[in-house]
Each structure stands twice: as C-alpha cells, then as structure tokens.
Write a structure and sequence with these properties.
Helix content: 55-70%
Strand content: under 5%
Number of strands: 4
Number of domains: 1
Order of helices and strands: HHHHEEHEHHHHE
Strand order of the largest sheet: 1-2
C-alpha cells in the first residue's frame, strides 16, 4: 500500500516518524542553545530588563567572601558573565582564573563550591553535546533514507512530526506554568547534578548568583530558548519537507 513506509507496516512507519521527531527536538534544542551562547544568552539585554545592576548594588556589599562587585561598570559585569559562559562551554577550563579588580586588589569571582558547580554544568553540557551530535547523525540518516530510495512520503506522516513538535512545546510550556519555573529549576538541579555538590547559593555567599540574579535570569533564558526552538524549528520543518519529498497530495 502507498500509505506504508518503505513497505513496512503502519507501526514501523509510526515508529520511524516518532524517532524522527525525538531526534529533531534534541537537535533543535541544541542548535537553539548554541545560538544563544553567541550572544552570551542576551545577558546585556536581560541585565537592563531584570534590573540586575540594582540587584548587584544591593547584594554585592553583603557578600561574605569577596567585595567590590557593585563597584564595577555594566560592561565589566557583562564581561564577567561572558567569561563564565565561555568556560562552561570549554569543559570548565578557566573557571578558577575568572577575577576582577575591586579597586584595591585582584580577587576571584568564584568560590571553590561555585567552581565545582560550574564544572558540573560544563560536564552536563559536554554530555548534552555528545547526545546532540548523535541525534544529528541519526536525523540526517533518517532524512536521507527516502532520498536514497527515491521515495515520496505521505503528507499525514509529515503532519505527525509537526504535531509532535507543537504538542511537546505546548506540554513543556504548560508544565512550566503549572509547576512554576522556580520549582522546575530546583527539581532539574536535584535530578542532574551529583549528590553532595552544592548548587544552591544565597546571594550573600555567591557573586555568581548575584551577577545572574538567579533564578530570574534562568527563567528569561528559558523563554528565549523556547523562542529560538520555534524559529529554528520552523526552518527545519521546511527543510525536511523539501529534502524528504513530502507528497502533499496524498
């Protein structure tokens, strides 16, 4: 039957497109993340929008370890955040070397506990990158298979991918709204980071947390990530439709 994918039964066809959808979603999330890193997650924009400068002025002098963060300029704050972003995307290299001059001395930005946490973040990014590369490979294979066989796929399968993509985004968005971004943020940290490694820091103990106005900044980044996924996903859908020769007349 023409509705069967590559002469497999309907179940095999659905399984094929489910795998395509999952790999696509992983690749989209990874590409969106990488795109955001090019602008340091738009930190300079969120810096003004979230009033991070005022936050630093309030909590910087209260820090129990290092003082003087509030004395730095906006561009210096942005540069420090950029150094953190660069380090966690370079396997954690350089985290201990992030310093700033407070007007009297050169001092570290991060405490040992913060360095350990950011190293955990860097390790997680490395794992996510490996998964993304693997997903990209399988996605290319699945996209190229019908071209190799010179097949044209029924349009309803293509619609299934689009529905999966949209339903997944809607479900994740609804989950965030119902549970709350902060609760999801804390749950995620307990899930992915090693036991015994500190990941929660009070503003008075962490210039890193103060610089990021956590978790507010992470909520803003999550919004930007979803937006990027939607935009890049739309382009990918058009690419898939063209490469895989989707037959809209079926």
């Amino acid at each position: 039957m023409r509705f069967l994918l590559l002469k497999f039964d309907r179940f095999a066809a659905n399984l094929y497109w489910f795998a395509m959808s999952v790999f696509l979603l992983i690749v989209l999330a990874w590409l969106s993340w990488q795109s955001l890193t090019l602008s340091d997650f738009h930190y300079s924009f969120w810096y003004d929008w979230l009033e991070i400068k005022q936050h630093i002025v309030l909590y910087g002098p209260q820090n129990r370890h290092y003082l003087g963060l509030e004395l730095l300029t906006t561009s210096q704050h942005v540069a420090l955040f950029g150094q953190i972003v660069a380090a966690i995307h370079q396997h954690g290299q350089g985290l201990a070397e992030i310093t700033f001059y407070n007007g009297a001395m050169l001092q570290p930005l991060l405490t040992p506990a913060e360095i350990t946490h950011l190293q955990d973040v860097a390790n997680l990014i490395d794992v996510a990158t490996a998964v993304a590369y693997g997903s990209m490979f399988f996605l290319i294979v699945l996209m190229g298979y019908p071209r190799l066989l010179k097949r044209s796929y029924p349009h309803f399968y293509f619609k299934a991918v689009c529905r999966f993509y949209l339903i997944t985004l809607f479900t994740l968005g609804l989950f965030l709204i119902l549970i709350g971004p902060k609760a999801v943020f804390y749950w995620f940290h307990t899930l992915v980071f090693p036991d015994g490694h500190q990941w929660f820091f009070y503003y008075q103990d962490s210039l890193m947390t103060t610089l990021m106005k956590a978790p507010d900044l992470f909520g803003a980044i999550a919004i930007a990530l979803v937006f990027y996924v939607m935009v890049i996903g739309g382009l990918f859908v058009l690419l898939i439709k063209g490469v895989m020769k989707i037959n809209s007349n079926i």
